[in-house]
Amino acid sequence: MQKKEAPKDKTMILFNVTKRLREEILNGNLKKGERLVQEEWAGKLGVSRMPIREALRQLEHEGLVKLEPHKGAIVTPITKDDIEEIYHSRLLLESLAVEKSLPHLTEKDIAEIEDLLLKMESFNIATENIDYYVQVHDQFHKSLRKRSPWARVDSMVDRLGISPIAPSLLVGHYSETQRDHRLIFEAIKRKSASEVRLAVEYHILRTKNHLIEYMEELKMLDQ
């Protein structure tokens, strides 16, 4: 009788499968418009179809594939120009949304933001599941702008894409990211709109630059 996989094993398999497919797209091995066949990738990676299917759903959320009826997953890779456009747009929109949110944040809101910050700062990047960190990171950024009265701007930030995957791609820059988050929070506590805006803009620009470096390094490794 085949041994049943533990939930922890399933989580690790899904993480590894998603990471491998993501890298294949970002480094250019999988081209725009190419179809990802679940059976083929299950065979290549030595896993069942289930983690392939779940990984493709995650990659669709990240904007790297599109799931089409009767066709399956179609590659829609992120390019350097995409990152430039997304992050410059995010710089303008997210910093504005956080600035507009700042005057309306309650003491309870600020305490929740601090709790999320402390969770990220206590996260062990070497031993803990990166998906948990990604989730907390996403909540932190949403909490900063949760009281913004400009709902359209906030909605545009959510639709920009790729931002949710940056923490999982840039684990090597974890310490820098946490310093950025701490600076943003300290500005929030001081209720300084100008400091908050500058701290958010700096964080977004640094992330953009590291993402481009990451993609270029992947291509170099593939040569």
TrEMBL record:
Keyword Amino-acid biosynthesis assigned: no
Lineage: Bacteria, Bacillati, Bacillota, Bacilli, Bacillales
Keywords: DNA-binding, Transcription, Transcription regulation
Keyword hit for DNA-binding: yes
Record-given protein name: DNA-binding GntR family transcriptional regulator
Cited InterPro entries: GntR_C, TF_FadR/GntR_C, Tscrpt_reg_HTH_GntR, WH-like_DNA-bd_sf, WH_DNA-bd_sf
Species this chain originates from: Halalkalibacter nanhaiisediminis
Residues annotated as domain HTH gntR-type: 11-78
GO function term, MF aspect, one: DNA-binding transcription factor activity
SMART domains: FCD, HTH_GNTR
